[in-house]
Amino acid sequence: MLIDEKKCVACGNCVSVCPMGAIHIDPVKRRATVNQDECVECYTCYRGMSKEHLNPVIVRTIRRIGGLFRWRFDPEPDVCPTDALTEPELSWPRVVRRAFSDPIVPHESTGVHGRGTEEVKTNDVTNRVGFGDAGFTIEFGRPTVGVRFWQIQEMTRELAKMDLTFEKRNPVTSLMTNPVTGDLREDILNEKILSAIVEFKASLRNVPAILRKVKEVANRLDTIVAIGAAARCDENGDNELEEILRQESFGFVRGKTNLGLGRASNAVPEAQEATVSAT
Amino acid sequence: MTNTLHRYGDEHSLRNDFIVFAIPCRGYNDQDAVPKLRQFLRMAVKHDPVNIGDGSRGSMYRPNRSLNPMAHWSRDTKPDIEEVVEKVANPTTVAAVFDNKTAAETFIEELRKADLGLSINLSASIANAQTCCHDIDLPRHSVEYSLGFIGKTDRLADRQVLELSTMCGHGMISFTFARKMIDWVREGRRTPEQACRYMSRFCSCGIYNPTRAKEILEEAMLRNS
């Protein structure tokens, strides 16, 4: 993201809005400044803040006079008063930052918004996670901590050694140069993003080993890892995964329940191989 | 919408948080999805959701591109429901947030009868979702469990900030902004309702639950986190 110095009045509203803490007021220039290495191009400031189109000179003058008397204007905290935030033109590899950080932008690889995954949300239609399977979503950088791809690669390399199958229709998998080793494209490794999900499925019997491995690698990374584990339910709505998770001392309060009301209806269903073998 | 999976909070904090969403599956049922997604939202509106949204075009609380300066004193805060429903233009995820189990259950019942053919998911506490399914005699097809946060957890914020911030799972509500809203409410600079509206505008998918956010802010007013 860019901030137009001619327009910025250093009100500071964008500073607290930035999920990465990448914006600060430069004390010399007295303008908001973006740390480009930390900015993940999530567009939270650009899209999330309302805009007035006030004259910057007038606003600065009023602020200066108010400041002399130690008066503090108490403005709306989600407004950029002079429309100073400017959309940058992104090129490769920086464009990857926006693809993984701005939920409004659909991922090219999957056509899905957000983090680009369908997981078990459409399992009633695809049956991707079947009986005896466990589906995993390992998410990095969430909430609002951020992650670089080289950190994700540390996990994918370790996971690739295990008996599991990476989901093909997943934005991180589409950036793998080799799903057998878990290697990601070299030119994106240092790019920072808000969050990304590594998605795979495995046999239920491998769940304990996978969870232990994920924990072990996550403890080496300087970011947050959020784990989601999913299973297909039987006709009574029960599944074996819950007990496995309890045995592994994983508590769960929150979840997402697919209610089984979906079905394929396209005239020509897409016969697509949805997985890439890791081993 | 893993976006809704990892909401931070215990069973009590999540008791009034029910998100029902519809998602078309690319290559399987996305060709005729747009009218069905609009129908989903129209049906949801009848059950008084506290928020609705379209994953690609925004929620009923949205920022204004050309705000009048008078907004600092009298801002139009009326949610724009029709804008969300009518602007659904492509196969995307649409969601409705409810702050009570009865409304969520009744809506799901109605969806079952409407037979849209899209995948319908309920994101809530596992216990609440299970009770819902039991009450309406609809066995769960698949479940995804949030196993929480691991790794460098010392980089996380405190409980109330986490509860407010993770209600937008895409991370559009920064820890700093959530903390600022708590502080402003405690200092009496804004009401909890006003602070909720500010935060809701940043969640572009419309899955932010302003009722729950208000409860968290009111709790924060009364005691330290």
Describe the structure.
The complex is a heterodimer of chains A (279) and B (225). With 279 residues, chain A is α+β, with helices and mostly antiparallel strands. Chain A folds into two domains: 2-86, Alpha-Beta Plaits (2-Layer Sandwich), CATH 3.30.70; 105-277, BMC (bacterial microcompartment) domain (Alpha-Beta Plaits, 2-Layer Sandwich), CATH 3.30.70.1710. Helix content of chain A is 23%, strand content 22%. Chain A has a five-stranded antiparallel β-sheet, with helices on one face. A two-stranded antiparallel ribbon of chain A has the order 1-6. In chain A, strand 2 and strand 3 (31-34) form a beta hairpin. The longest helix of chain A is centred in the first third of the chain and has 13 residues, at 56-68. Chain A is elongated and about 70 Å long. The two termini of chain A are 40 Å apart. In chain A, 51% of the residues are buried. Chain B has 225 residues and is α+β, with helices and mostly antiparallel strands. Chain B has one domain (2-222). In chain B, 38% of the residues lie in helices and 15% in strands. Chain B contains eight helices and six strands. In chain B, strands 3-2-4-1-5 form a five-stranded antiparallel β-sheet. In chain B, helix 5 crosses helix 6 (175-186) and helix 7 (192-202) packs across helix 8 (210-222). The longest helix of chain B is centred in the middle third of the chain and has 14 residues, at 101-114. The interface between A and B is large, with 103 and 96 residues. Strand 15 (254-258) of chain A pairs antiparallel with strand 6 (142-151) of chain B, so a sheet runs across the interface.
Secondary structure blueprint with pairings:
The complex is a heterodimer of chains A (279) and B (225).
Chain A: E1 2-3, H1 13-17, E2 23-26, E3 31-34, H2 44-48, E4 50-51, H3 56-68, E5 79-80, E6 85-86, H4 95-101, H5 123-126, E7 133-140, E8 147-148, H6 149-160, E9 165-167, E10 176-178, E11 183-184, E12 192-193, E13 196-203, H7 207-218, E14 224-232, H8 241-247, E15 254-258, E16 275-277
Parallel strand pairs in A: 4-5
Antiparallel strand pairs in A: 1-6, 2-3, 7-13, 7-14, 8-12, 9-13, 9-16, 10-11
Helix pairs in contact in A: 6-7
Chain B: E1 18-23, H1 33-45, E2 51-54, E3 58-59, H2 81-86, E4 94-98, H3 101-114, E5 119-125, H4 126-135, E6 142-151, H5 159-165, H6 175-186, H7 192-202, H8 210-222
Antiparallel strand pairs in B: 1-4, 1-5, 2-3, 2-4
Helix pairs in contact in B: 5-6, 6-7, 6-8, 7-8
